[in-house]
Amino acid sequence: MRPQASLAGRPAGEMDLVGGRFFLDFVNTVGARQYSTTKQTTVRDDKLNDYSDLLAWGQHVKLLPETEVRTLAREASRRPQEASAVFKRAIQLREAIYRICRAILAKEQPEQHCLEVINEELRVARGVERLVSGKAMFSLKWDAPISALDRVLWFVTQSAVEWLTTGDLSRLRECRGRDCGWIFEDLSRNRSRQWCDMTDCGNLAKIRRFRLRQQRSRRRNTSSSLNVS
Predict the structure, then answer these.
(1) Domain boundaries along the sequence of the chain
(2) pTM above 0.90, yes or no
(3) E strand intervals along the chain
(4) How many whole angstroms from its chain centre is CA 214?
(5) How far apart are CA 68 and CA 87, in angstroms?
(6) Which residues of the chain have pLDDT under 70?
(7) pLDDT of residue 207
(8) Topology of 3-190 in CATH?
(9) How many Cβ atoms are within 10 Å of 120's Cβ, its own excluded?
(10) 104-92-5 Cα angle (round to 5)
(11) How far is residue 138 from each of residues 132, 134, 159, measured CA to CA in Å?
(12) What is the pLDDT, as a whole number, of residue 1?
């Protein structure tokens, strides 16, 4: 079996991409989240369950071309313990970014250990970056073999740090869907986006409001009939 064949049909490789940034789509690799007043997070239907899911997501968001996915899948099968360690780092990074996003939404200071997780991944990513010159300009490129199992994390970390340091944090939103919790950047002109996807959570909310109006209308009609009688 070819290495990439095992990635077919994985939820991480088919999920909706609504975050607007790589790191936000990475945070959204869950079916839903619930964040309690005690700052405990409950995750439903996690789309990242092993290293292959991480590769499937990386290919889906076009961070990894198919040739690199095949290489990394082969390397992961040869180095399963290292692949498992990278996957553990990926989940830690995802949850650290999520909790920082929650702190931004709540206008609170982020937890120090979350910053430490991102800083450690930033240190790793910066360690493989090199300044190179092109025909008309300079650029930063990864100077590491494509067999480096944690290369997806470099892209995610770069995306998160770039936005956290230069982006408009006031545009960060959490979907108002009852069973969602996805995070996204609101780029609408009037900053009015409420849903991760209008055709999904938005429509469900519309249906719920419509049914609620019907129930209220029936109760009013019933009450009126009783009063007349």
Answers:
(1) 3-190, 197-229
(2) no
(3) 30-35, 41-46, 129-133, 138-142, 172-174, 183-185
(4) 36
(5) 17
(6) 1-5, 198, 200, 202-229
(7) 47
(8) Jann2411-like fold (1.10.3300)
(9) 15
(10) 120
(11) 6, 6, 19
(12) 34
CA distance 61 to 57: 6
Half-sphere exposure of 205 (CA within 13 A, CB side): 15
Q: Give the SS3 label for residue 164.
A: helix
Task: Identify which of 66, 92, 87 has the alpha carbon closest to the alpha carbon of residue 4.
Answer: 66
Tokens 């999520």 label which residue? 98
Give the tens place of pLDDT for each residue, 207-226: 454 344 555 555 555 655 55
Burial 200-223 (b: 16+ CB within 10 A, else e): bbbeebeeeeeeeeeeeeeeeeee
* Mean pLDDT for all residues in the chain: 87
Residue whose entry in the numeric block shows the structure tokens 């009126």: 224
